[in-house]
Hints:
This protein is α/β, with parallel strands linked by helices. It has helices at about 10-15, 25-35, 55-65, 70-75, 90-95, 130-140, 160-165, 185-190, 210-220, 240-250, 265-275, and strands at about 20-25, 40-45, 80-85, 100-105, 110-115, 150, 170-175, 200, 230-235, 255-260, 295-300, 305-310, 320-325.
Amino acid sequence: MIRSIITLDETVAVLVPGSIAVVVGDPNRANALRSLNTEIEIYEIPEFVTSDIPASHSLLKAHLGKVPIKRPKMHFQIDYLYIGMGVTPSVIDDVRSYLHVGGIVHFHDGRVDRQIPEPVWDIPIAKLKPMEKQYISEGVANLPPGGNYVEIGAYKGGSAVIAAIANPYATIYAVDIWAGLNPDFEVFLRHTQFFDNIVPVKVAVDVPQEGPTIIANKAGIPVGNLSIDFLFIDGDHHYEGIMTDLETYVPYSKRVCGHDAAQGSYVQVAVERYFAKGFARLLRVCPPDALRLWGKLFCFSGGGVGYQAGHALPYKNSDSSIWYKLS
């Protein structure tokens, strides 16, 4: 669930290293924040902005050295925002649009607010298409009380946040190696710091099969009692990697889905071979350049299971690349 709001000073003091605080219209408050947490970045914006250029552009240039043309909110996020006196609503709306989901806004008059998107799955840092975000959000929202969601390949935490805000009573296990091409565990911690129901699970690159045991240990149960309500696989996209993830986690899982099963991809081949059990080419992806869904839709009388893509979810094919297995 979203972490409880505490006092202004305590809020800033507990921000994780690398967090970004922005103060608009109150230089004294900016100086005070610097004494509360020396491991965060603090930016100031004056109370008056007369230029036609959005105030957020100055933040982007200061932090990134440029203003990204595409998806700037994926490249820059604010964790804490303080609004001083005399700040115009347009400036507040512009700067606040970069606030992390769950991030805190403190106003000069004592008001406190949280950043909650509408719709709730609209998380800019998640590298998923809108319908994919919606699929995860709705699936987690429907989990029973005390249910869990396990995500393989948590990366920077975007889809974990989608799951966490969808169901504050579910436990979100975010699994990754956070090494090699994805070394920045601190970025994940920053992106997920406002959600107490997100549990990071760091596995060793050479023994990813230990994941279920680590999850069970964090849940305080024997691994033999582990049951995963909703499994989302978006980790290693090589054949051996996706096959390892399938073999490791599917036996514990009630609902299975994943990402990037493009036509002819290693993901598609591994998923097909794992689930089809000897039936050739049961996975169909159409159109090949757009849809990357798979789902268990029917069973053969001989006990084999067939899989076909794209006909069990109410989403436009061109807007989704999630593959899925229906229970």
